[in-house]
Amino acid sequence: MTAESTFLRHEPCPACGSGDNLARYSDGHAVCFTAGCNHYERGNGTASDFVSRKPTRTLEMTGVIASIPDRRISQAVAKRYGVTVEYDTEGKITKHHYPYFDKDNGSTIGTKVRIVNNKQFYATGGFDNAGLFGQQAFKGGGKYITITEGETDAMAVNEMFDGKWPVVSIRSGAAGASKDIKANLEWLESFENVVICFDNDKAGQEAAKSVLDLFTPNKAKNVTLPVKDAGDMLKGGQVQAFVKEWWNAKAYRPDGIVAGDDTWNLIVEQQNTVSIPYPWQCLNEFTHGFRERELVTITSGSGMGKSQIVRELEHYLLGATNDNIGILALEEDIPKTALGIMSIEAEKQLHLDKEVTEEEKRGYWERTMGSGRIFMFDHWGSTSEDNLLSRIRYMAKGLDCKWIILDHLSIVVSDQDTGDERKAIDSIMTNLRKLVQETGVGLFLVSHLRRPSGQKAHEDGGKISLGELRGSAAIAQLSDIVIGLERDQQHADPTVRNTTTVRVLKNRFVGLTGAACYLFYDKDSGRMIETVCPVDESEF
């Protein structure tokens, strides 16, 4: 090792397993500065050629207590921590000695020695019963204790507070933080507040997170610095900035815990969420419309008009918003979906009306499919869960679709290999719910019903309940709104036969449930038109 060798980077130590305590230098040599390790690699350019040194059991504690100018550490702080320095013949500091003390008798049992010219560390003595660096200088108990990642950082923090508050350091770097804290937890818990002030890098912040959970709830706080560490802030003259960050440190809470006094902005954001009305006013009276970040499930028996209502919604969104729309119609090919939406615009069934000219069709297309705001998944039949989720995510994030329609859930499940429909639906619904929260889209989901037992079939006018959703209770649990469609397809009266009862089965936003409205299917226009109940409403 020579003075010309310069520090390059931190690496994991192959001897002690520390994540970043092995210092690599420009001539190839490396040394671990984990206390008690002293792993050393010769600078011959061969990474695998290393020599492990036994810890030096003879305690090395020489030099004098003095200020450390390059670190802006005063003599008073050095004395408080028992840190000594050595000088060369020109009066330049060559070494720092950081002492560690026996927790039981207070004797000096180990030192970490820093060689100034090449930033090398090595350890002397033993550390088996050593406390934290600086622990001997402070009595247990009190208002605050600050814990840093390194010895010089501890001295820097103490310096910036003029010695007012106790400050200690872990001894083994970020990799050993949890172990060091656990070994001294009883003493640390005697303080009312514990402030964690580790390095502002990945290793430091991961180590901070690992130790914050060790303390009594609300006791520990975490300081996030604008530079790498507290020592840099002292050297840079950023004392007031550090003090401000220290005082502003908030009590640590595990991930997912939100304090009530942090919710105002969330409430305002939710209150400002714009509701888009449904095309049918009586349904709006029940639901107050639909919103982004909502999952709306539409369900019914076979042939009850789910897809037609979905087309109405797709067409309505084009006119009611300026947003992009994503459509995944897994039982329809692209031309059929497109023609269905165009038919609603035309108010005639274009696939049946042979008198519509090519020019007229072009106009309907330009106002709907040709608007540049509709994106469709070109796939017919079953698809894997992962494939489906990736397409929805791309529509939301890549194509900026605010509203997505998935028709329908059961066909996705049919592609799963689990053999357990309930588990498959649980998985898909959970991930769809997460995707809605992640992307902020409004998702309309079409789902089927299982056949009722001991009552009228849904196709014969049987009422729908949440318990009849096919496959899993997760559909009801994870949906914000569930809308069921009921119709007696075999009724003698053609008006009744073509009138759908829209029943709100779940309504998280408002709470109202029940028969919300009635929609009549007009075969000439192909539209679902709001109407009155065609029979005695007591039947519904």
Short description:
With 540 residues, the chain is α/β, with parallel strands linked by helices.
Descriptive notes:
- This protein has helices spanning 75-81, 151-160, 177-183, 185-189, 202-212, 230-235, 239-247, 264-271, 281-287, 306-320, 334-346, 358-367, 385-398, 409-413, 421-439, 474-478, 494-497, and strands spanning 7-11, 22-25, 30-32, 39-41, 50-52, 84-87, 93-101, 108-115, 120-125, 142-148, 167-169, 191-197, 220-222, 295-300, 324-329, 374-376, 401-407, 442-448, 481-486, 499-507, 514-522, 527-531.
- The protein is of the alpha/beta class and 540 residues long.
- It has two domains: 10-247, 3-Layer(aba) Sandwich (Dna Topoisomerase Vi A Subunit, Chain: A, domain 2); 281-539, P-loop containing nucleotide triphosphate hydrolases (Rossmann fold, 3-Layer(aba) Sandwich).
- The strands form four sheets. A nine-stranded mixed beta sheet has the order 16-15-17-18-14-19-20-21-22, sandwiched between helices. It has a five-stranded antiparallel beta sheet with strand order 1-2-3-4-5, with no helix packed on it.
- Helix 10 crosses helix 11 and helix 13 runs parallel beside helix 15 (421-439).
- The model is unreliable at 44-56 (pLDDT under 50).
